[in-house]
Design the sequence.
C-alpha cells in the first residue's frame, strides 16, 4: 500500500516537472525581433566595411596603373622627340622672322647637311575645343603642309599641353653671327590619364636635348 502511494507521488512529481518544462518552453521563443535586428545591423556594417576596403584597394591599384601608363607613354614620346632633335638641327627659317617664340607650340627641324634634298621633321600641338593632340610630320624636299601631319595617338592618355623652349632664339650658325652656341630644346609635356575613375591623374615631364651641330654658314 505504502509502495503504491510512493509510486503515485513519484509519477505526480514527474508530471509536474514535465508541465513546468513545457510552460518554460512557451516563454522562450528563441531570438526576439530586437535581437534579430541587431544581428542584421552588425552583419550589414561588416559587409559595408569589407566593400569599402575592396573599393579603396581597387582605386589604389587603378591610380598606380594610370600613373605607370602616363610615365611610359610620356617617356616614349619624349624619346621620339629627343631622337629627332639629335638627328637634325633647328629650322629657324620656318618661324616668323626666323625667331621662334618662348615657349613655342611648334618644333621645326631640318637635316640639309648630308642629304639632298633636305629632310624636314615637324611637331605641332593642336588644341581645338576639347580635342588636344600632338601631330608629327616627316617630309623630304619641302617643308610640311597641314595635310602632311599625322596624329600621335596614346591609348587612354590625353595631352594637356606641349611646349618647346628653344635656346638661342636666333640662329647661332647664321652668317655674321659672332659666336657659335649649341642649340638646346627643352620639351615640356603635360599628360592626363583618361582611365582613372577616382579623379584624373596628371603628370608633367620635360627633357632638354642639344640639337645636331651645324657648320657655320
Sequence:
Amino acid at each position: 500500500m505504502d509502495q503504491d502511494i510512493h509510486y503515485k507521488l513519484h509519477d505526480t512529481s514527474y508530471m509536474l516537472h514535465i508541465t513546468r518544462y513545457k510552460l518554460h518552453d512557451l516563454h522562450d521563443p528563441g531570438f526576439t525581433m530586437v535581437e534579430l535586428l541587431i544581428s542584421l545591423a552588425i552583419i550589414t556594417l561588416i559587409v559595408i566595411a569589407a566593400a569599402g576596403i575592396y573599393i579603396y584597394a581597387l582605386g589604389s591599384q587603378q591610380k598606380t596603373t594610370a600613373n605607370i601608363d602616363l610615365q611610359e607613354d610620356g617617356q616614349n614620346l619624349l624619346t621620339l622627340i629627343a631622337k629627332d632633335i639629335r638627328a637634325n638641327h633647328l629650322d629657324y627659317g620656318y618661324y616668323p622672322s626666323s625667331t621662334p617664340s618662348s615657349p613655342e607650340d611648334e618644333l621645326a627641324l631640318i637635316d640639309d647637311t648630308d642629304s639632298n634634298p633636305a629632310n624636314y621633321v615637324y611637331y605641332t600641338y593642336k588644341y581645338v575645343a576639347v580635342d588636344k593632340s600632338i601631330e608629327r610630320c616627316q617630309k623630304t624636299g619641302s617643308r610640311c603642309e597641314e595635310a602632311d601631319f599625322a596624329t600621335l595617338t596614346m591609348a587612354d592618355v590625353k595631352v594637356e599641353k606641349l611646349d618647346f623652349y628653344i635656346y638661342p632664339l636666333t640662329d647661332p650658325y647664321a652668317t655674321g653671327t659672332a659666336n657659335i652656341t649649341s642649340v638646346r630644346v627643352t620639351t615640356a609635356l603635360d599628360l592626363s590619364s583618361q582611365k582613372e575613375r577616382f579623379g584624373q591623374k596628371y603628370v608633367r615631364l620635360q627633357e632638354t636635348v642639344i640639337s645636331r651641330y651645324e657648320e657655320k654658314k
Summary: Residues 5-9 have pLDDT under 50 and may be disordered. The first helix runs from residue 2 to 26.
